[in-house]
Amino acid sequence: MSDLYKMIPSDIMAIEVTQVLLNAQSVDGAVRKHAEESLKQFQEQNLPGFLLSLSGELANDDEKPVDSRKLAGLILKNALDAKEQHRKFELVQRWLSLDVSMKNQIKTCLLQTLSSPVPDARSTASQVIAKVAGIELPQKQWPELIGSLLSNIHQLPAHVKQATLETLGYLCEEVSPDVVDQDQVNKILTAVVQGMNASEGNNDVRLAATRALYNALGFAQANFSNDMEPKAVKEDEEPVALQAIEFWSSICDEEIDILEEYGGDFTGDSDIPCFYFIKQALPALVPMLLETLLKQEEDQDQDDGAWNLAMAGGTCLGLVARTVGDDIVPLVMPFIEENITKPDWRQREAATYAFGSILEGPSPDKLASIVNMALNFMLTALTNDPNSHVKDTTAWTLGRIFEFLHGSTIETPIITQANCQQIITVLLQSMKDAPNVSEKACGALYFLAQGFEDVVSLSPLTPHFQEIVQSLLTVTHREDAGESRLRTAAYETLNEVVRCSTDETAPMVLQLIPVIMMELHQTLEAQKLSSDEREKQNELQGLLCGCLQVIIQKLGSSEPTKHVFMQYVDQIMNLFLRVFASRSATVHEEAMLAIGALAYATGPDFAKYMPEFYKYLEMGLQNFEEYQVCAVTVGVVGDICRALEDKILPYCDGIMTQLLKDLSSNQLHRSVKPPIFSCFGDIALAIGENFEKYLMYAMPMLQSAAELSAHTSGADDEMTEYTNLLRNGILEAYSGIFQGFKNSPKTQLLIPYAPHILQFLDAIYMEKDMDDLVMKTAIGVLGDLADTLGSNAGSLIQQSLSSKDFLNECLSSEDHLIKESAEWAKLAIGRAISV
């Protein structure tokens, strides 16, 4: 230590350093030059004291100005690093030779600055910490750093999290990957990905995490490529590999979300950047994932909950394909071509799995020629491959081909008159295979049928319809149909085949009714079942009710078939009532949905079933515990209102009482509340001015819900989504009530509610977070108000804050439904104002 320095008391130095740092940024050249000289002198004469006073300056939140703190940090950073190699080496050696306790004091100041409320101070400290880490970690010094940063991540306030993530990002840039062990790398990655997660409400934190990820990935990749050289992943390494794959999968999820949200066109002002990490990682990532596909387990197909490295790898590969699209194809094709015909089943299965995994994401054009070549091979493998695993994956892959590359939107059809016969023959044959293979074959048939849903007549499936339906029914009766979800899959496929069928096959769909009714009847006859048998019975009743629902919707939707179908309605309804009488929650739900479809199909004639059915409707509305049942029942009340119109009046007191009870209950799940409000609208539309006696109960409920849902600032995505559902329900109620009272002498009763409704529309317009559906319903309500109240609404609408802006915004919307609704509202408002 030089004598000169000893003569200056350190506190003077500390006071002075602030002023000198400020002077060094002065506009006056002479002042600036003098300050720079002083700093240089201080640094040369007493480096430890100089660095310590700079770190103290940076850490001092109480009385130091931002500008001096920023420059202090910058000088600190430059004292640790330089562009020229020899200079950099000198600085590193100089830092390493400093007194340990002095260095510890400096490091404490730096870490303390991460929780400063001043953003610039935090950011500068982040960079300096990373520079120190770059010097010390390779020397096995500062081993506790990463641990203490990671424990900061769980801290609030958010700015500490944000600064810590920023520090981790810089750290991954500065530090060579081989000095941090894999476990810590995984922890850093996990922390960063959690910070990016949508559940993290703070956007600054998400942004810092996303930026940090960019560096952390390079860091991790270096670690992966060391760890994942072609050597097999040994047993004890599987958890680490699974964790790595899990990590890459969550990155894909993030990027897919961003791409969906911004539609792939990023503007400089979007607050979450998309760095295309996956695209950059492809060359290292894809080979690693393909390698994992060969790590199958012998019995994975039989075990429903199986999850292993191969499955994780395939799932991740699928996410990568969705993230990068066409770029994945050339990286995966060589692996497929090399392994698909190998004698070892593992290689054939891995190649098939890889192929199936990349079918969603790349453009159909990119895949069409490959799929056309592969289709024949796949059909042959499904018939002839000796190995059950390979068949299972082949059937799954065929399903993916039909799901993503077949349908009215695809230009080059994969399925032609020429190959359709062979495809169906192979799939129906496979349905006789082991349960896991059969279930996947049902799935493939499901998507095959779905691809023809837009065909109006002469679907390629028509000639095979009878045979397909018969094969599926046979599957449902297999002894082992309880395994691998097989029975459920067969019914789901049967439903889809019926739903997508054309008029030519209507007579065959009609013949299916007595068959399914008979099966349902038999489930009701069974006596004295054990609880296990009863559960299976309930499940089967649910599947059969679901099947009848689809048939009812299909045949009820066109006049000629509807006429013939009517002969069965009494018997069907009778069966449903018996299902209710033997009641169990799950069946209750499917039978309830089927009754909704039946009411819709039969219209006013449904009234004759109401006396007997009403008690079950009421039970459904009272079912708080199983809120899905309650929600479904509320929906069915809407169907019945539309079917019966004013014939529902005798039941309305009971229904409205129960709905109001549901709304005021704290036990009922919040998701049921929006449909209950919509249901008010359905009832009002059905009974018109008779709704008068419910206004004094319904309107205050709607008003208080409206106030709650108007203001959402600071809500997370999930809350915003729910708020929009709630708003839509409230608006549908208002719309139904106003339309129901139209042209009635009692419209006067609604005038007192109009100002509140207009305030609600103003408030949600101002919040700027309506989704398209709410926008359409809201502008519709403005029209309903004008249409029903006429001149009484005209002046109120003219006084309202934003209805004009809102209307204009909707009129210029690209969504044709919003535009249509707005044009109607404009006419109605025009009429109301001109009166």
From TrEMBL:
SUPFAM superfamilies recorded: ARM repeat (SSF48371)
Domain Importin N-terminal span(s) in chain numbering: 35-116
InterPro entries: ARM-like, ARM-type_fold, IMB1_TNPO1-like_TPR, Importin-beta_N, Importin_beta
Key words, A-Z: Cytoplasm, Protein transport, Repeat, Transport
Molecular function GO labels: small GTPase binding
PROSITE patterns: IMPORTIN_B_NT
Location(s) in or outside the cell: Cytoplasm
The UniProt record lists the keyword Metal-binding: no
GO CC term, one of those recorded: cytoplasm
GO biological process: protein import into nucleus
Highest taxon in the source lineage: Eukaryota
UniProt xrefs under Pfam families: HEAT_EZ, IBN_N, TPR_IMB1
Coiled-coil regions, chain positions: none
Presence of the UniProt keyword Cytoplasm in the record: yes
The family this protein is said to belong to: Belongs to the importin beta family. Importin beta-1 subfamily.
UniProt protein name: ARM repeat superfamily protein
Native source species: Actinidia rufa
